[in-house]
Please model this.
Amino acid sequence: MTFAIIAAGEGSRLSQEGVALPKPLVRLNGTPMIDRLIQIFTHNGADKIVIIINNESSIAKEHLQRKQQSSEVPIELIIKSTPSSMHSFYELSKKISDEKFCLTTVDTIFREKEFAAFIEEFKQTQLDGYMAVTDFIDDEKPLYISTDARQNITGFHDTANPECKFISGGIYCLTQAAIRTLEGCMEKGISRMRNFQRQLVADGLHLKAYPFHKIVDVDHAGDIIKAEAFLNGTD
Model:
Protein backbone atom coordinates (compact mmCIF):
# COMPACT_ATOMS: atom_id res chain seq x y z
CA MET A 1 0.00 0.00 0.00
CA THR A 2 1.29 3.44 -0.93
CA PHE A 3 1.18 6.33 1.54
CA ALA A 4 1.40 9.88 0.18
CA ILE A 5 2.15 13.17 1.93
CA ILE A 6 1.32 16.68 0.76
CA ALA A 7 4.05 18.92 2.15
CA ALA A 8 4.19 21.56 -0.58
CA GLY A 9 2.65 24.48 1.31
CA GLU A 10 4.73 27.53 2.13
CA GLY A 11 3.90 27.58 5.85
CA SER A 12 3.61 31.37 5.60
CA ARG A 13 1.59 31.78 8.79
CA LEU A 14 4.18 29.87 10.80
CA SER A 15 7.06 31.91 9.39
CA GLN A 16 5.22 35.18 10.03
CA GLU A 17 4.85 34.10 13.66
CA GLY A 18 8.56 33.46 14.09
CA VAL A 19 8.92 29.77 13.22
CA ALA A 20 12.13 29.58 11.21
CA LEU A 21 11.90 26.00 9.93
CA PRO A 22 9.82 25.04 6.88
CA LYS A 23 6.58 23.34 7.92
CA PRO A 24 7.66 19.72 7.19
CA LEU A 25 10.60 20.15 9.56
CA VAL A 26 8.70 21.77 12.42
CA ARG A 27 9.40 19.60 15.46
CA LEU A 28 6.84 18.02 17.75
CA ASN A 29 8.44 16.62 20.89
CA GLY A 30 11.77 16.83 19.09
CA THR A 31 10.73 15.02 15.88
CA PRO A 32 10.12 16.78 12.54
CA MET A 33 6.50 16.36 11.46
CA ILE A 34 7.53 14.74 8.16
CA ASP A 35 9.72 12.20 9.99
CA ARG A 36 6.88 11.37 12.35
CA LEU A 37 4.59 10.55 9.41
CA ILE A 38 7.25 8.46 7.67
CA GLN A 39 7.73 6.49 10.88
CA ILE A 40 4.00 5.93 11.38
CA PHE A 41 3.48 4.86 7.78
CA THR A 42 6.40 2.45 8.05
CA HIS A 43 4.82 0.92 11.16
CA ASN A 44 1.55 0.47 9.26
CA GLY A 45 2.80 -1.54 6.34
CA ALA A 46 3.77 1.06 3.75
CA ASP A 47 5.30 -0.43 0.62
CA LYS A 48 6.21 3.03 -0.65
CA ILE A 49 5.93 6.63 0.59
CA VAL A 50 5.52 9.45 -1.92
CA ILE A 51 6.10 13.03 -0.78
CA ILE A 52 5.68 16.37 -2.55
CA ILE A 53 7.44 19.51 -1.31
CA ASN A 54 7.72 22.92 -2.93
CA ASN A 55 10.87 23.93 -4.76
CA GLU A 56 11.50 26.88 -2.44
CA SER A 57 12.86 24.95 0.54
CA SER A 58 16.39 23.62 0.05
CA ILE A 59 16.49 22.62 3.73
CA ALA A 60 13.46 20.34 3.41
CA LYS A 61 14.81 18.94 0.15
CA GLU A 62 18.18 18.07 1.70
CA HIS A 63 16.53 16.56 4.78
CA LEU A 64 14.29 14.29 2.72
CA GLN A 65 17.07 13.26 0.39
CA ARG A 66 18.92 12.03 3.48
CA LYS A 67 15.77 10.22 4.62
CA GLN A 68 15.63 8.46 1.26
CA GLN A 69 19.01 6.92 2.00
CA SER A 70 18.14 5.74 5.52
CA SER A 71 14.45 4.86 5.30
CA GLU A 72 13.27 1.26 5.73
CA VAL A 73 10.62 1.95 3.07
CA PRO A 74 11.30 3.42 -0.40
CA ILE A 75 10.60 7.16 -0.51
CA GLU A 76 9.84 8.96 -3.77
CA LEU A 77 10.27 12.71 -3.62
CA ILE A 78 8.55 15.23 -5.90
CA ILE A 79 9.90 18.76 -5.77
CA LYS A 80 7.38 21.11 -7.32
CA SER A 81 5.47 24.21 -6.26
CA THR A 82 1.75 23.89 -6.91
CA PRO A 83 -1.19 26.31 -6.66
CA SER A 84 -3.25 24.12 -4.29
CA SER A 85 -3.30 20.90 -2.29
CA MET A 86 -5.45 19.33 -4.99
CA HIS A 87 -2.77 20.07 -7.57
CA SER A 88 -0.19 18.57 -5.23
CA PHE A 89 -2.34 15.45 -4.96
CA TYR A 90 -2.47 15.29 -8.76
CA GLU A 91 1.33 15.26 -8.92
CA LEU A 92 1.45 12.53 -6.26
CA SER A 93 -1.20 10.48 -8.07
CA LYS A 94 1.21 9.90 -10.97
CA LYS A 95 3.32 7.83 -8.56
CA ILE A 96 0.41 5.84 -7.07
CA SER A 97 -0.35 2.56 -8.82
CA ASP A 98 -1.84 0.60 -5.89
CA GLU A 99 -5.58 0.06 -5.92
CA LYS A 100 -5.72 1.37 -2.32
CA PHE A 101 -3.65 4.19 -0.90
CA CYS A 102 -3.56 6.71 1.94
CA LEU A 103 -3.04 10.46 1.54
CA THR A 104 -2.47 13.06 4.23
CA THR A 105 -1.10 16.55 4.71
CA VAL A 106 2.14 16.98 6.61
CA ASP A 107 0.60 19.05 9.41
CA THR A 108 -2.23 16.66 10.29
CA ILE A 109 -1.54 15.38 13.81
CA PHE A 110 -3.26 12.26 15.11
CA ARG A 111 -2.60 9.41 17.50
CA GLU A 112 -0.95 6.41 15.90
CA LYS A 113 -3.22 3.85 17.59
CA GLU A 114 -6.32 5.40 16.01
CA PHE A 115 -4.57 5.68 12.67
CA ALA A 116 -3.55 2.01 12.72
CA ALA A 117 -7.16 0.93 13.32
CA PHE A 118 -8.29 3.26 10.51
CA ILE A 119 -5.82 1.77 8.04
CA GLU A 120 -6.61 -1.81 9.01
CA GLU A 121 -10.36 -1.30 8.56
CA PHE A 122 -9.83 0.36 5.19
CA LYS A 123 -7.69 -2.55 4.00
CA GLN A 124 -10.62 -4.89 4.68
CA THR A 125 -13.36 -2.79 3.07
CA GLN A 126 -14.70 -2.85 -0.48
CA LEU A 127 -15.77 0.79 -0.34
CA ASP A 128 -14.24 3.51 -2.50
CA GLY A 129 -12.84 5.47 0.40
CA TYR A 130 -12.57 6.11 4.12
CA MET A 131 -12.25 9.69 5.33
CA ALA A 132 -10.84 10.47 8.77
CA VAL A 133 -13.19 12.86 10.57
CA THR A 134 -13.41 14.45 13.99
CA ASP A 135 -15.89 16.44 16.03
CA PHE A 136 -13.02 18.51 17.44
CA ILE A 137 -13.14 21.85 15.63
CA ASP A 138 -10.12 24.13 15.88
CA ASP A 139 -9.77 25.12 12.24
CA GLU A 140 -10.22 28.54 10.66
CA LYS A 141 -12.10 27.13 7.67
CA PRO A 142 -13.33 23.64 8.55
CA LEU A 143 -14.84 21.38 5.93
CA TYR A 144 -18.04 19.97 7.41
CA ILE A 145 -19.11 16.45 6.49
CA SER A 146 -22.70 15.22 6.43
CA THR A 147 -23.39 11.52 6.93
CA ASP A 148 -26.28 9.11 7.17
CA ALA A 149 -26.97 6.86 10.16
CA ARG A 150 -24.29 4.37 9.01
CA GLN A 151 -21.59 7.04 8.65
CA ASN A 152 -21.77 6.98 4.86
CA ILE A 153 -20.75 10.40 3.58
CA THR A 154 -23.51 12.33 1.84
CA GLY A 155 -21.80 15.69 1.34
CA PHE A 156 -19.01 18.15 2.07
CA HIS A 157 -19.98 21.65 3.20
CA ASP A 158 -18.38 25.01 3.98
CA THR A 159 -20.93 25.61 6.76
CA ALA A 160 -22.54 23.23 9.21
CA ASN A 161 -26.05 21.82 8.90
CA PRO A 162 -28.04 19.41 11.13
CA GLU A 163 -26.57 16.39 9.30
CA CYS A 164 -22.98 17.50 9.98
CA LYS A 165 -21.53 15.83 13.06
CA PHE A 166 -17.93 16.00 11.91
CA ILE A 167 -15.31 17.96 10.01
CA SER A 168 -12.65 16.59 7.71
CA GLY A 169 -9.46 15.47 9.44
CA GLY A 170 -7.25 15.68 6.35
CA ILE A 171 -6.50 11.95 6.14
CA TYR A 172 -7.88 10.18 3.10
CA CYS A 173 -7.88 6.46 2.33
CA LEU A 174 -8.93 6.10 -1.28
CA THR A 175 -8.92 3.82 -4.32
CA GLN A 176 -8.03 4.33 -7.96
CA ALA A 177 -11.63 5.47 -8.56
CA ALA A 178 -10.76 8.66 -6.69
CA ILE A 179 -7.80 9.29 -8.99
CA ARG A 180 -10.13 9.09 -11.98
CA THR A 181 -12.29 11.74 -10.31
CA LEU A 182 -9.17 13.81 -9.63
CA GLU A 183 -8.17 13.63 -13.29
CA GLY A 184 -11.66 14.78 -14.24
CA CYS A 185 -11.36 17.73 -11.85
CA MET A 186 -8.08 18.75 -13.45
CA GLU A 187 -9.61 18.56 -16.92
CA LYS A 188 -12.54 20.75 -15.82
CA GLY A 189 -10.31 23.30 -14.10
CA ILE A 190 -11.71 22.50 -10.66
CA SER A 191 -9.35 23.40 -7.81
CA ARG A 192 -9.13 22.94 -4.02
CA MET A 193 -9.27 19.64 -2.16
CA ARG A 194 -12.74 20.33 -0.80
CA ASN A 195 -14.12 20.68 -4.31
CA PHE A 196 -12.43 17.43 -5.30
CA GLN A 197 -14.12 15.77 -2.33
CA ARG A 198 -17.49 17.15 -3.41
CA GLN A 199 -16.86 15.71 -6.85
CA LEU A 200 -16.23 12.29 -5.33
CA VAL A 201 -19.80 12.36 -4.01
CA ALA A 202 -21.13 13.74 -7.30
CA ASP A 203 -19.41 10.88 -9.14
CA GLY A 204 -21.19 8.37 -6.91
CA LEU A 205 -18.21 7.03 -4.97
CA HIS A 206 -19.09 5.23 -1.76
CA LEU A 207 -17.25 7.00 1.05
CA LYS A 208 -17.40 6.34 4.77
CA ALA A 209 -16.56 8.68 7.63
CA TYR A 210 -14.18 7.19 10.18
CA PRO A 211 -14.27 9.16 13.46
CA PHE A 212 -11.04 9.99 15.27
CA HIS A 213 -11.15 11.25 18.85
CA LYS A 214 -9.17 14.30 17.82
CA ILE A 215 -7.06 15.57 14.93
CA VAL A 216 -4.98 18.74 15.20
CA ASP A 217 -3.65 20.91 12.35
CA VAL A 218 -0.42 22.86 12.79
CA ASP A 219 -1.04 26.17 11.01
CA HIS A 220 0.12 28.64 13.67
CA ALA A 221 2.98 28.77 16.15
CA GLY A 222 0.55 28.18 19.02
CA ASP A 223 -0.64 24.97 17.37
CA ILE A 224 2.77 23.40 18.01
CA ILE A 225 2.16 23.54 21.76
CA LYS A 226 -1.38 22.20 21.31
CA ALA A 227 -0.16 19.33 19.14
CA GLU A 228 2.56 18.33 21.60
CA ALA A 229 0.09 18.38 24.49
CA PHE A 230 -2.32 16.24 22.47
CA LEU A 231 0.33 13.67 21.61
CA ASN A 232 1.56 13.61 25.22
CA GLY A 233 -1.96 13.10 26.54
CA THR A 234 -1.86 16.33 28.54
CA ASP A 235 -4.37 18.34 26.47
Notes: The radius of gyration is 17 Å. The longest helix spans residues 58-70.
